[in-house]
Each structure stands twice: as structure tokens, then as C-alpha cells.
Amino acid sequence: MKTMSILKYIIPVLIFFLLIFSGCKDDSNSLVVYTTVDQVFSEPVLKKFESLTGIKIKAVYDTEETKSTGVLNRLLAEKSNPQCDVFWSGDPMRTVVLENEGMLYPYISRSAKGINDEFKDKYHLWTGFSARARVLIYNKNLLKPEDIPQSIFDLVSEKYKGKVAIANPLFGTTTYHLAALFSVVGDERAKEFLKDLKNNKVVIATSNGDVKKRVIKAEVFCGLTDTDDAFEAIKEGENIGIVFLDRKGIGSLIIPNTVSLIKKKKISNNAKILMDFLLSKQTESELSYSCAQMPLHKGVKTAKNVPSLDKIKPMKIDYIATAKKLKGIQNYLKKWVEN
Amino acid sequence: MGRKLIKHPGYTIILVLYLFFVVFPVLNSIWLTVTNGHFIEIVKTVGQDTILLLLKSSGLSAIIAIISTLAGIVLGFIIYKTPVRFGKIFKITILLPLFISPYILAVAWKDLLLLFFDKIYGINSFFAIVLIHSTIYIPLSILIIGSALVNVSRESEESALMIAGFKKMFFRILLPLIKPAILTSLVLVFIFSISEFSVPAYFGVRVFTTEIFTQFSAFYNYNLAMLQSTLLIIICILLLLSERKYIADSPFLSISTRGKSTKIYDFKNLNRLGLLILIFSLLVMIILPLLELIYQSFEKGTGQFTKAFNLLLPTFENSLFLAFIGAISTLIIGFVAAYFSEVYRKKNLDSLILFVFAVPSIVLGIALIKFYNRPFLSGIYSGFGIIIIGYIAKYGFISAKLMGNAIKQIPSSLNEVAKIQGIGSIKRISFITIPLILPAIFASFIINFLFCLGDLGTTIIVYPPGAEIMPIKIFTIMANAPESLTGSMVLIVFLFTILIILILFIIFKKIVVFYNVDY
Known about the structure:
By secondary structure, chain A is α/β, with parallel strands linked by helices. Helix content of chain A is 41%, strand content 16%. In chain A, strands 1, 2, 3, 4, 5, 6, 7, 8, 9 and 10 form a 10-stranded mixed β-sheet that branches. In chain A, α2 links the parallel β1 (30-35) and β2. Chain A starts with a helix and ends with a helix. Chain B is mainly α. In chain B, α1 packs across α16 and α14 (303-343) packs across α21. Classes of the chains: A alpha/beta, B mainly alpha.
């Protein structure tokens, strides 16, 4: 009876601690990777790395629902005791946030030799690879060839009133796109453009994926999105066309993926091996096939529909300066969205 | 034997564990916000705009709470108090929207409307949020109000009917008698609705939770987000406390009727109208969005369905394990809190559970990370322990509420007689309390099992790297996957949920036979 009464208190506590320590496993040959790149595209690359090296990858992916900010929030919350070894971001913007927080560790990867310096951090805290571009997708059933916008500034024309979609500029690559626009054309012109866009009843979608969906479903004529969403849109609906805007003007924004090591007490060698792998031509080639991303290395075998970066007029921006610019315009963008 | 140092050691251990593992991380987070040195500056940024937004969100949630509760009264009455055909089937099926993610329902509804209309004027508006949230929370209202309706004394209704017509009896007797349940429904739906962010975000409507989310995710301003969350927590706690004070000892939200037969109203030909109302509700709340998901899944053949199944297959084991442990843990915590609150008037644990329940998911997730991400607690942080703690924090309240109201209905004389006979507390709980509240235990287990199985809000922030968990997989795959694939995944989870409900129901029947209790 006495034993019973002791057991009745101890058993739940034991169960609880059993649960608690279920997380303590040997992790010597594994690597923790946080990525904001869509799981459908990033997971096959990480799986391939596992099969080639035998290094187990423990990944944390992001969700559409949290607008791909869940991973970054988690990284920031973990700042005092980082769990992540490698951060693979779909854009430089989030990486720069971590850089500003002093959370990155420098590494010069031998795989990144062929990548242009403009896609690398000067302190080697991150390196860019496989890029997307910001493009306009349009519904071929709704727009005649002569009516297809060729410049971002055409979107304020009366004929597109209420028929253009962009993703919420407070999140994701749209934020970066607008920050780049502010950097390139100056605050005054960028604000004037946004004001006109708003007056033209632009549809603010929740995400680039939502823009894609609205164009496919003919809810709007056209919308700004990234090339990976654009090529997915073509796969899903045959009525979709793509335009690289401002070929004769400011050019298209090129958004590279970035990879970086997270600063922690012990930097794992496996993390460097993964960085080398991600920055390799092989990975760039795979990403071109899976999600139409454009390699930053020269001479990479790509899918037929993937344009070469040489054929696109890139927007001339400094990625770090643009990230700083972003911070300065965020309040303006918030008000723009809300009003 | 002298006096015991601690009167209820079991309760004290659970209380201390709950304090340390669940409450302390939240308090720690609030403390860090208050003491960060910029608190006064942050408070100053909470201006008129924030208050107006809070009022706007409160108005929206109040509308949803009123609609859900009114629908809950009508549908609850038809299901529980009339001899409607297929009543038992409706009782289960009408609860299903509770277990589908609001975000998925929002996507399904919007796609559904787009199938029939080229342009959906006004869909990106309050109307859409009211529609989706009401769809999700009406089942909760039905559950609460239906349980109260079956507990109304048959004698009261029959005596009233002897001197007045049905209409008068309904408005003057029945409704006043279930007023506590109506109030609970209003408060709970209000809290659930005001804390939910994915649907307003999807429809582009600025509400208080989307503002908190924006501060977290666009501005990385944790302190302001935390302060705004604290405002939300205070409102929720005030509402819950006032509800608790108002309802006092009124019994409701229990599942069984303790052998009493409830009064059934046979309206003859009008029963068909009741059936039609139920079919219509089921159509709007579950069948239409489900049909849209089926359409999306199989529009281009069965290939995506197979792919979705293969993608989800590795998640089943972990998800079932986590949901099972989560449901058991919340059941234990809920039972202890409810039992000691009702029997011994010890309300500390019950109050703490209520406090944590009011914390928004994202705030809870960040609070857990900030507290547990330390070397000496890495066992919890890098394992499933942190997810279980998240479940306990979010769903303990439901267990405590369900079982508390069931325990309320047990005549105190039963326990007192057993005590006089010298029967110990464990035996009294095992052979008196548990058998008598078995349906509430079952309901609590199944509801929390399904909530844990589908939890996204907190799990997405804290899940261990590399862990395969069902809702996480769906939502991480959802970004950029074809809608046929995501539709298929949601459909599989839906079928999986129904299968689990059936299995648990069979197990419950066996337990009832084991206890030899007639329900």
C-alpha cells in the first residue's frame, strides 16, 4: 500500500522525464539546417546530400501560412544558444538580418570560386547561388500581346485598374523588390509609383503563391512574382505568360539564394561540406530543373525554360545596402498596405 | 502520525511541474519584455491606432461569437432535443470542422467560390472571416449548448409546458436555464476568434493578431509584439474570469446525462424542417469545402493523391505518438486541476491553466524557445518534450473545463459516504469519480487528441529539426506545391481523423463495458 502511494506520484514524473530526454541522441554525424526555401525544392537537394555523404540532415522548413518568416523568428529567438548549423535562405534579405545580429560565421567555400563577387558578402558571412528574378506573370486569355506591360511603371495605367496583383510588401521577396526600387529610382519616384499603384486599386495578395493563383484563376490580368512561382504557374495553367520587366530601363531584380554558417561554439566540419555542396554547379543545375532557378556559375547545365542570367538585364543594386534601405521604408510600406 | 507537511502531494507535484515547465516560460518572456530597457518607449508606441484596432478586432470576434452561439442554440436544440433522423450521425459529423485548420478552410472556401463566380466581390473582407470562423466555431457552440440542453431538468420543462406554450417555455424557461452555457459559448468563441490570425491574414484584413504577427515577422520587434500580445491576454483573462464568476456552479459542458432522460420535443411534420436545417448546415460547414478539396485532389487523376499519401506516411507514427502523449498529458493535468478545484476548492492550477490558455500560439512558441533553449534543458528543446509542453499549455484548459463540469454533477454525498467508510482517495477517484465522468474523460481525450494531431501554431515554432509531423509537413509542402497535392494531403488527414474517431469510439465502448456502467 505504501509502495502504491509512492508510485502514484513517481510514475507521472518518470514518464515526463522520459519524454524530456527522448531528445538526447548521438548527433555527431548530423547537421541541423534551417531553410526558407520551399520544402518541395529544398528537400530533394538535402536528401541528395545525405545520400552522397552519409551525413544526416535535420531540417526545419518554413510555411506559407507564416509567410516564410517562422524560421527566421526561430533563429532570432535561439540567438543565445543556436541549434542551427547552416542557414539556407531563399533571399539575401533575411540573411542580412542575421548578419546585423552578429549571428553568422565567415567561410570561403572553394565551390563558390566561379560566382561573381556581387553575390557574396564582403566579409564572407554569406554566399549567393542559384537566383530567381522578379517577373510579371499574366493571363494570356485576358491580355492581348500588345497590352502586356513591359515596365513595372506601366502597372499604374488606367487599363490595368484593379487587375494587377502584388504580394503583401511587408513580407517575402516583394519587400526586397520594393526596397530595391527605392534604391534604384530614389524615394520620391518610388513613393509616387506606389501611390499611383494604390490609386489604381492594386490587389494585395497574401503571398507570391497567392498572386500566381489569382492570375491562373483569371481574378486579375497580371501580377508580380518570382521566377520559381512563375514557372510553377506555367506548369499548372497553360494560359500563363512571363515577362522580364524593364529590359530597356532599370532591369529585373535578381534574388540569389544565400547560404551561411551560424555562429556557435563549435562550427561543424559537416556544415562546411554542406555549404560546398549547395554552392556547387551540381546543385545549381538541379535547382534549375526543379524550380527554374538561374545558376550564378557559368557553364551549368540548365533546364530548357530557364533563361541565362546573361540574357536578363539585372537591376543594379547592392544587396546589403538594399537590406538597410528596407528597414528605412518598412513603416512607409506598412502604412501603404493599411491605407 | 502527525499532520502531513503537504496536504495533497500529488496535486502539489503537478502544480509545481506545471508552474516550472509551462507558466514560468511565459512569465519569463513577459519579464524580459518589461525589463529590456525600452519598455517605456514601446508603451508609448501603443497609441490610439492600436486601441482602435483592438476594438475593431473585438467587434469582429463579437459578431462571430454571436452568430456561432445563435447557430449553436438552434442546431444544438435540433440535435439534442428533437427526434431528428440520423441525430447520432449529426452529433459527430457536425463537429468535424473543429479539427480542420482554419487556413485550409479559408483556402477551400475561396477556391470554391471562385469555381462558381468569376469575380468575388467582397470576398476579401470581414464577411469571409465571419463565414469561415463561424463555420469552425459553430460546432464548439453546439457542443457546449447541446450538453447544457440535455442537462436541463425534464420536470422544469414539463411543468412550464403545463401552463404555457412551447414558445413561452423556450424563451422564459429553457434559455434562461442554459444561460451559463450560452455565456461560455460566447466567451470561448470570442477568444478563439480574436486569437486566430491565419484567416484574416489570408483575406488581407488587418486585425489585432495580424498586427502582432507583422511586428514579429516583418519588423522583428518582439517587444512591441509581446506588449500587444499582453493586451490580448489581459482581455481574454478578464472575459474568462467574468464567465467563471457568472456561471458559478452551474453544470454544463459535460457529455453524459448521468442517467437522466432529457425531454425530447416531437414537432411532427416540423421535424423534417429540423432535418433540412441540419443538412444545410452540414453542407455549408463541411460538405462543400470537402467537395472542393476532393475536386482539387482528383482533378488531374489519382497521381497526386498517391504522392500525398507517400509524403505523409512517415509522419503518421510521430504524429500519433505525440497526439497520444499530448492527449494523455492534458487529460491528467485537466483532471487534477478540475478534481481539486471542484472537490477541494483548490483553484491555483485551474487558474494557471486559464492564464496560459489565453496566450496566443506564436507568443507561446517564442516564450518556450527563449526559456528551453539552454544547454541544460536541451533534452527538452531538441526532443519532443517541448511539443508536449506546448500541447499541455494550449489544450489543458479544454480538459479542465470538460471534466470540471462533469465532476460538478457528481453528488458530493457519494464521495462523503465513501470517505466515512474509510475508502482512500485513490480508490474513490478510481471507482467513483472516474466511472461517473467517463464520457467527459473520453470527450476530453478525443478532442485534445485531435487538436494535438492538427496543431500548427505552436508546433511550427518549436518542432525539433528533422522531425516528421503531419500538420508541419502539410504546411511546409503547401508553399509552392500544386493545389492538387495540398488538397490531397488535407483530404488524407481528414480521412485519418475520421478513422481515429471511429477507433477511439470503439475503444471507449470497450472501456464502458469494462467498468460496467450504463450510459
